């Protein structure tokens, strides 16, 4: 099952709205608020890589208040 960690930068004062929108997504396993360069850290899981890519490109970047994302896809070692 593919997993990814996504760092989010939000528009000022939109952290809570983005946090809530991410928390409602069934593919989101964890959401954490951060201090520093990024505002949120999210761990997601998907059934396959294609669904994961679609979720990253089509769902998360369209959330109102998301300014930038950085995605790290986890691999088996």
- Biggest beta sheet attributes: 4 strands, antiparallel
Total helices: the number is 2
Counting structural domains, the number is 1
- Kindly report the name of the CATH homologous superfamily: Lrp/AsnC effector binding domain/regulation of amino acid metabolism (RAM) domain
SSE pattern: EHEEHE
Detail the poorly predicted runs.
none
* Overall spatial form: globular
| Relative helix content | 25-40%
Give the number of DSSP strands. Answer: 4
CATH structural architecture: 2-Layer Sandwich
Q: What is the first-to-last residue Cα distance?
A: 14 Å
Return the CATH topology. Answer: Alpha-Beta Plaits
Average per-residue pLDDT, rounded, comes to: 92
Structural class based on helices, strands and sheet pairing? alpha+beta
Strand order of the largest sheet: 2-3-1-4
The value of Rg in angstroms is 12 Å
CATH top level is Alpha Beta
Query: What proportion of the residues form beta strands (DSSP E)?
Result: 35-45%
Summarize the structure.
This protein has 77 residues and is α+β, with helices and mostly antiparallel strands.
């Amino acid at each position: 099952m593919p997993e990814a960690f996504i760092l989010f930068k939000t528009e000022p004062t939109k952290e809570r709205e983005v946090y809530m929108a991410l928390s409602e997504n069934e593919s989101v396993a964890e959401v954490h608020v951060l201090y520093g360069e990024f505002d949120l850290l999210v761990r997601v899981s998907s059934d396959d890589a294609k669904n994961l890519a679609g979720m990253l490109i089509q769902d998360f970047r369209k959330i109102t208040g998301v300014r930038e994302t950085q995605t790290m896809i986890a691999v088996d070692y």
